[in-house]
Design goal:
Blueprint: H1 14-23, E1 25-29, E2 34-36, E3 44-50, E4 52-58, E5 64-71, H2 77-84, E6 92-95, E7 99-105, H3 106-115, H4 117-143, H5 146-161, E8 165-167, H6 170-177, H7 181-193, E9 197-200, E10 203-206
Helix pairs in contact: 3-4, 5-7, 6-7
Length: 207
């Protein structure tokens, strides 16, 4: 099975798949392990084979905000751009769950781009998806109330991890949405009272 099989509209040749397989280094990670840190140089492009990664941005005061998720068959467009231009990472990538990741060395990326149009198609498709997701983040911050943002966050996490029950603290939600823990706790209690979720010890279930 190709690591790109999860992107249904992305067609690859047998030669391309064989080259990707021979070039990449495969690593496995546990949930919450950091894949890429901010301000670090990018020597290889991560392509998710199994699991998922969340991409975060941190401000000068250490506050974080979730930008988007990278699912199986996808990669990080920020890594492509930073690696190709020898720039440091502007984001932090953390495993959302146990994941298997293929790392494509930057020097191999250049040769693939010259010989196989598939890699350019792949990059452009990813760029389009990430751009739309970042627009959603901007739209949510600018126009949505915090209760809507929290419920959208929980639904997205449920879609990515394929479960309606997950372990997460109110502090983690606050960090990923760039708000205060007390705000999150108050809204989650309201959501539980209206039957949208149930709360447990560091656990949330979407109903």
């Amino acid at each position: 099975m190709s690591i790109f099989d999860n992107i249904q509209e992305f067609e690859t040749s047998k030669i391309f798949r064989e080259k990707i397989g021979s070039y990449c280094i495969i690593k496995k990670f546990k949930a919450d392990e950091v894949i890429l840190r901010e301000n670090s140089y990018i020597s290889a492009i991560p392509i998710v084979s199994k699991g998922s990664i969340k991409v975060m941005r941190t401000d000068e005061d250490g506050r974080e905000i979730l930008l988007y998720y990278i699912k199986a068959g996808e990669s990080c467009i920020m890594s492509f751009l930073g690696g190709m231009h020898n720039e440091t990472s502007k984001i932090q990538a953390v495993c959302e769950e146990e994941s298997e990741i293929y790392f494509l060395p930057i020097e191999k990326l250049t040769s693939l781009m010259k010989d196989h149009h598939e890699i350019l198609d792949y990059i452009f498709k990813l760029y389009h998806r990430r751009f739309e997701e970042l627009l959603d983040v901007v739209n949510a911050i600018a126009f949505k109330k915090m209760d809507e943002r929290i419920f959208d966050f929980l639904k997205k996490k449920s879609e990515v991890t394929h479960t309606k029950e997950f372990h997460i603290t109110h502090e983690q939600i606050a960090n990923e949405l760039g708000t205060a823990r007390v705000v999150v706790s108050r809204i989650l209690k309201q959501m539980e009272s209206t039957g949208q979720i149930t709360l447990g010890r560091n656990k949330i279930t979407i109903l």
